[in-house]
Known about the structure:
It contains eight helices and eight strands. The protein is an alpha/beta fold.
Amino acid sequence: MTGVGGGSSKPHPPPSPCEELPWRDLPEDNEDNFNFIKYYQPRNKDASHLRILLHGPVGAGKSSFINSVESVLRDQITNQALTDATSGSSFTLKYKTYKIEKDVDTYYPVVFNDIMGFEENTSTGVQVEDVILAIRGHVKENHKFNPVSPLTEEDPDYKPNPSLDDKVHILVCVVPADSVPLLNTAKVQKLRRVRVAASELGIPQVAILTKVDEACPEVKKDVNNIYKSKYLKQQVEQFSVLLGIPINCIFLIKNYESEINTSGDINRPILTALKQMVTYGEDYLNS
């Protein structure tokens, strides 16, 4: 075939699944972000810790993220928050606070709460009302969620006068990267209802898209491609449109799942996201 200039034209190569340069920069090493977490203390004297609540669909990787953060901070693979890859329903049934050990008998002043996941069926999974009550600090530790009936003020597990420590200081929505296009209207509405409730309270929100290695073959080959992947960038943009969360508040994460040792490359995006969560939560504590 002859082109306009008389030369032969060649077929265009398929577009690269990765950008040449990352569309979001990560630090070259983990020292600054690690030290930020290591030396963090809430400036508000009424708060002994910063509370992060994770919510999202069943199987999103909420418990795995807690384990991954602990693995990073302790430099060893841990499994404090129990997970289950085969049940197909929420493995987290109770409201539980997870603390991460810093030194002997001391803990990081950042705590996590995992919560039962959302499901399509209204009679299964956590009720939106229960998530909102947890955000407000009204859910007692070890409360067992009832998928059919949300917590009421008459329930013994209802905390009527929550302290600042009981309340959530930052809300994190967790969704698998490859399931963003599959989120149905019912799940999106549940996520948005929680987001609106948190917004009305002034609580900051971020999102993490997990299982990036399962979503993108290039990331499976090399986790350093996480912010070069065109596909993952599209999922971030689509998720931002669905929930209204700004793109700079959505982070890509590969949790520790099959690994038996920690890796600086896996740690880097986890620490970057964690630092922003703590930064936003600290702003809320001092607002």
